[in-house]
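Operator note (shift B, R.M.): manual run for V-set domain-containing T-cell activation inhibitor 1 requested after the automated queue skipped it. Running by hand, logging everything below so the morning shift can see what happened. Input copied straight from the record, untouched. If output looks odd, do not overwrite the archive copy; leave it for review.
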Amino acid sequence: MSASKLILSVCLLACFLKRSLSKDQQQITVKTGDNVTLQCLDPRGGDIKLLQWRRQDLKDEGYVYYYKGRPRIKDYQHSSFQDRVELVDPEMKNGNVSVTLKNVIINDTGTYECYVASGDRTELISNITLTVRVSGDAGGDKDGNVGLKVGLSVVALIVGVGVLLVL
Ligand SMILES: *[C@@H]1O[C@H](CO)[C@@H](O)[C@H](O)[C@H]1NC(C)=O
Ligand SMILES: *[C@@H]1O[C@H](CO)[C@@H](O)[C@H](O)[C@H]1NC(C)=O
Ligand SMILES: *[C@@H]1O[C@H](CO)[C@@H](O)[C@H](O)[C@H]1NC(C)=O
Ligand SMILES: *[C@@H]1O[C@H](CO)[C@@H](O)[C@H](O)[C@H]1NC(C)=O
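Run finished. Output pasted below as returned.
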């Protein structure tokens, strides 16, 4: 009993440390139909030469958002993101290259990486794990199960922590 409690504590602590050490790592959960802002602030400030928002699993198929010199988005943008992604600050002042993804669908679930070239170096600035769950109740269809599974594992984690606190 106490051994398992110790192991659980160590696991939770490890997760917590891992999360807090990588400061540009974000986790966001939204509902279908929401508009979500994906935050990315380049600490080097302005003069953005190149901006690439990528989704990890679509690597070779196009970008979530692409900017180089002037926006030529459609040439490089993945079709599922066309007309749905906008810069929060169109002037990208102070390295603010956050984007809003509108009207999210279940398939938007994934890992979003923000790469910025400023000066002569391209760097990963933000790495965001976005989870989209079905809005409203039940869902029931195939897509809904993804959100349900994520939801259940969150519940399991909360229950686990609760049990730990009671022991
Ligand atoms: C998302 O943004 C669009 C316009 O940009 C707006 O019409 C819509 O109501 C917003 N949706 C939500 C859920 O806020
Ligand atoms: C980026 O710009 C938007 C719009 O001006 C603002 O609401 C947001 O707070 C800015 N983000 C940061 C991190 O400065
Ligand atoms: C969601 O993704 C799956 C697999 O990638 C695809 O088969 C399906 O058509 C997509 N659904 C929508 C609504 O884009
Ligand atoms: C971004 O985060 C995901 C999930 O934590 C990880 O799998 C991925 O390797 C990260 N991307 C980069 C470029 O470090």
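Quick read of the result: The helical segments are 2-21, 73-76, 142-166. The mean pLDDT is 79.
Leaving this for review. - R.M.
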